[in-house]
Structure formats: C-alpha cells, structure tokens
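User: I'm new to structure prediction. If I give you an amino acid sequence, what do you actually give back? Let's try with this one:
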Amino acid sequence: MIKDIGLKEPYVGQTILVTSEIAEDLTYYFATSEQTPSSVALGVLMNKDNTVRQAGGFILQLLPGASEEVISTLETRLKEITSITSLLDAGNTPEMILEHILGDFGLEILDKMPAQFACNCSRERIEKALISIGKKELQEMIDEGKTIEMNCHFCNKHYPVTVDELKGLLEKASR
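Assistant: Good question. You get back a string of structure tokens that encode the predicted 3D arrangement of the chain. For your 175 residues, that looks like this:
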C-alpha cells in the first residue's frame, strides 16, 4: 500500500496478500498494518465490448470506541449488500449506498470530490529525485554523456533528462 499524504515521501505499508481479491486484501491490510477495523467493497461490471459499465466501491472504517451495538448494526447492513456493482447497476448513487448502510447513524455528507485516476508526478519531482541520489551518481551519469530516462512507476510517464539538465541538477545539488 502506497499512500501519498502530501509529505516528502509517500507512506509505504506492507502485508501479505491473503486472497488476491483487492477488497479482501485491503480489509486485511487495514486490520493488520493500520490496526483499523474496516470493510472494503469494490467491483467492476464490464460491457460485452470490454469497456467498463459500472465501477465503484467504499471503505468503511470504525472510529475508536465504537459500541458493540454500532458494530452489530453495521455488520448486519453490510451482509445485506450482495455486490457493489449490482447496486450501482441498479441506479444507486454512492450517496444512496451510504444512506442504506449509514442512514440510521445520522449520516451527513460534508463534501464531495470527483474521483479520477491522476498521478502527481512532475518534472520538478523527477529533478528532486535525481538530486537526492547524490553528486557522485549525478556526475557518473554526466560522464556517460547520454540522455537518461526517468519513469514514473504509477502512471508510466517518461521523463527524458539531457546531459545539460543533469549538469544543472549537479549544480543545484552542490549549493
């Protein structure tokens, strides 16, 4: 699990894969690595032409001190859900699904943000990563006399860095 929480480096946590089902493995990760009782439901419904018709999910986590009554009620509600994809395919919005699970608990939606796949890699971050490897390694790359290519492991974007750019980074690293 890699989470970018806005600090210098992303937070990295590891645990074994239990079932190779993403939702179940995330539930296990939260329980073991973060010690947070959680329920994770994920699903993707495909069209016959191999495009995505519905996709969605939720992560529900208990706050410390949750009562047995709350836990029992949540467990009952979660057992009623056949699959997240069937709920979405039936026209349920994420808000409707939350209302079904959490409505009796005084659900209040405070904010909404659009979900999207986006990587926060940038030329600036790549340059900072290169500077962080050290002057000696930068000099070795310069001495090879070739443009190097940095690749983002999240989105697979390629960043070519020329010898002249490496020289500029070496200069920055020397300050």
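You can read the tokens as a compact description of the fold. Here is one thing that stands out. The chain is about 40% helix and 20% strand.
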